[in-house]
UniProtKB/TrEMBL annotation:
It is an enzyme of class 3 (hydrolase). It comes from Bradyrhizobium arachidis. The keyword Cell wall biogenesis/degradation applies. One of its GO terms (molecular function) is serine-type D-Ala-D-Ala carboxypeptidase activity. InterPro entries: Beta-lactam/transpept-like (IPR012338), Peniciliin-bd_prot_C_sf (IPR015956), Peptidase_S11 (IPR018044), Peptidase_S11_C (IPR012907), Peptidase_S11_C_sf (IPR037167), Peptidase_S11_N (IPR001967). It catalyses: Preferential cleavage: (Ac)2-L-Lys-D-Ala-|-D-Ala. Also transpeptidation of peptidyl-alanyl moieties that are N-acyl substituents of D-alanine. GO terms for biological process: cell wall organization; peptidoglycan biosynthetic process; proteolysis; regulation of cell shape. Its EC number is 3.4.16.4. Removes C-terminal D-alanyl residues from sugar-peptide cell wall precursors. This is serine-type D-Ala-D-Ala carboxypeptidase.
C-alpha cells in the first residue's frame, strides 16, 4: 500500500506534530483553512476515475460502500440525479422508523386505506400493491410489511396520509426535511412511493447513505427487508429483491423500476463479518440489475479488506486557534478511522483534516472542529468527524490582537491571490 504526502498549509501541524498524530499509521494529513482545502477536495473528488477502481460495471450510475466505515469502494456517476423509482420507498420507511423511535407513531396505530390510496396504489392501479381493501384500517406494522416486502404503493400512500394527512405534505415536510437531517442535500420527493413524478430525484450516493443509516440505526426494522414473503388480504407475495435467493449473506434492501429511471436496486450482504451496500440505477433489464449488483458485491468481498488507519481517541492532528490561550488545539476521532483497501496493497491513500478556521476561542473539549477525509486512488473513500481533544480558553487581549492582525494580513494576501 502506498501513501502520498500532502504539504501542510496554514496550520500549527508541523512535521513533529504530524509525526505525533499520524506516524503510527504511516499516513500524512494536510490541515488547512476551509476555502483552499474545499477547492482542492472538489478537484480530487471530481476525478471519477472508475477505470482505476479495477471493476468494469455496466450500470449508468453505481456505488459500492462498506457499511461500517462508509468507505466507498467503487463509484460511477454517483452524484447524477435520477428517478429512484420504488427505491425511494426507503425514505418513506425511514421517516416512519424515526417517528416510531421518537414515540410519535406506534406499530399498533391503524391507518385507513383512503380511496386515493386504493386508486393510485391499490388493485385498480396496476402497479405494485399490497392489495389493501378500500376504507379498511391497517396497522402501521402491516403497512410497513406491505411497503417493504411487497413494494406496495398503497401502503406508502396510507402511511403518508396517516402521518401527514396528505401525501404531498408528507413528501415535502417529512421526507425532504428528514433527508436534509441525514445529510442528503440533493434528494427531492414528489410522493411517498416513487411512482413517476418530476419531483422524485435521488443519486445513488444518497441512496447508499440512506441504506447505511437504516442498517446501522434501525437494526430492529432492517430485518423486514430480509423477509422473503408477506401475505395480506389472502394474497401471498414474495420479496422482490433477487439477491435474497441468489447470494450468500444477502438480507436487503429494495428494487425499483419506472420508464424514466430504468431498473435499479439497493442491496446489501454480509460475508465474513463485513457488510457491503450496493446501489445501481438506470439499467434496461431487471436481470441486468440483479447481475450487476451481485457482481459488484462479489468483487468487493473478493478484493477488499478493512484497515484501521487511526484508532479511536488517537491524536489525528492540530487545528489553528484564533484568540486562544493556545495557538492550536489537538484533534481526535471518537471512532476508529477505517477504510477498505485492496488486498494486494496497491492503493494510494491521502488523508486530510478539513475545517473552517482558525477555530475561534473558547474551544470546548469534545467540540466538533471538522472532518478527516481519506481518498483512495483519487476517489474519496471515507469521512470521519474530528473533535477537540482539550478545552482551549480565551487568550489575553494582546494574544487576540496579534491573531487579529495576522488574520488581516493573511486575508489581504488571499484577496490579492484571488485577483491574479
Amino acid at each position: 500500500m502506498a501513501f502520498r504526502l500532502i504539504p501542510l498549509r496554514r496550520s500549527r501541524c508541523t512535521a513533529g506534530a504530524l509525526a505525533r498524530g499520524l506516524i503510527a499509521t504511516v499516513l500524512a494529513a494536510s490541515v488547512g483553512w476551509g476555502g483552499m482545502l474545499h477547492a482542492a477536495n472538489q478537484s480530487v473528488q471530481g476525478a471519477k476515475k472508475t477505470e482505476e477502481a479495477g471493476f468494469d460495471g455496466d450500470a449508468p450510475t453505481a456505488i459500492l460502500i462498506e457499511a461500517s466505515s462508509g468507505s466507498v469502494l467503487f463509484e460511477k456517476n454517483a452524484d447524477e440525479l435520477r428517478a429512484p423509482s420504488s427505491m425511494m420507498k426507503l425514505m418513506t420507511a425511514e421517516v416512519v422508523f424515526n417517528a416510531i423511535k421518537k414515540g410519535d407513531v406506534k406499530l399498533t396505530d391503524d391507518y385507513r386505506i383512503s380511496e386515493n390510496a386504493w386508486r393510485k396504489g391499490g388493485a385498480p392501479s396496476g402497479g405494485s400493491t399490497m392489495f389493501a381493501a378500500i376504507n379498511s384500517k391497517v396497522s402501521v406494522d402491516d403497512l410497513l410489511h406491505g411497503a417493504i416486502i411487497q413494494s406496495g404503493n398503497d401502503a406508502c400512500i396510507a402511511l403518508a396520509e396517516g402521518i401527514a394527512g396528505n401525501e404531498k405534505i408528507f413528501a415535502a415536510d417529512f421526507m425532504t426535511k428528514r433527508a436534509r437531517e441525514l445529510g442528503m442535500t440533493r434528494s427531492t420527493f414528489g410522493n411517498s412511493n416513487g411512482l413517476p413524478d418530476p419531483g422524485n430525484k435521488m443519486t445513488v450516493r444518497e441512496l447508499g447513505i440512506l441504506a447505511r443509516h437504516i442498517i446501522l440505526d434501525f437494526p430492529e426494522f432492517y430485518k423486514l427487508f430480509g423477509e422473503k414473503e408477506f401475505t395480506w388480504n389472502k394474497i401471498r407475495q414474495p420479496n422482490r429483491n433477487p439477491l435474497l435467493n441468489s447470494m450468500e449473506g444477502a438480507d436487503g434492501l429494495k428494487t425499483g423500476y419506472t420508464k424514466e429511471g430504468g431498473y435499479g436496486m439497493v442491496g446489501s450482504a454480509v460475508q465474513n463479518g463485513t457488510r457491503l451496500i450496493v446501489v445501481v440505477n438506470g439499467l434496461e433489464d431487471p436481470e441486468d440489475r440483479a447481475t450487476e449488483a451481485k457482481k459488484m458485491l462479489e468483487w468487493g468481498f473478493r478484493n477488499f479488506e478493512t484497515r484501521t488507519l487511526i484508532a479511536a481517541d488517537q491524536p489525528v492532528g492540530y487545528a489553528k486557534v484564533f484568540g486562544g490561550e493556545s495557538r492550536s488545539v489537538k484533534l481526535v476521532a471518537k471512532t476508529p478511522v477505517k477504510v477498505m483497501v485492496h488486498k494486494n496493497g496497491s492503493d494510494k491513500l491521502i488523508a486530510r483534516i478539513v475545517y473552517s478556521g482558525p477555530v475561534r476561542a473558547p474551544v470546548q473539549e469534545g467540540q466538533q472542529v471538522g472532518v478527516v477525509k481519506v481518498w483512495r486512488s483519487g476517489n474519496i473513500a471515507v469521512e470521519t468527524p474530528v473533535y477537540a481533544a482539550e478545552a482551549i480558553g480565551t487568550g489575553s487581549t494582546m494574544r487576540r490582537a496579534i491573531d487579529g492582525a495576522s488574520e488581516l494580513v493573511i486575508g489581504m494576501f488571499r484577496a490579492g491571490a484571488e485577483k491574479l
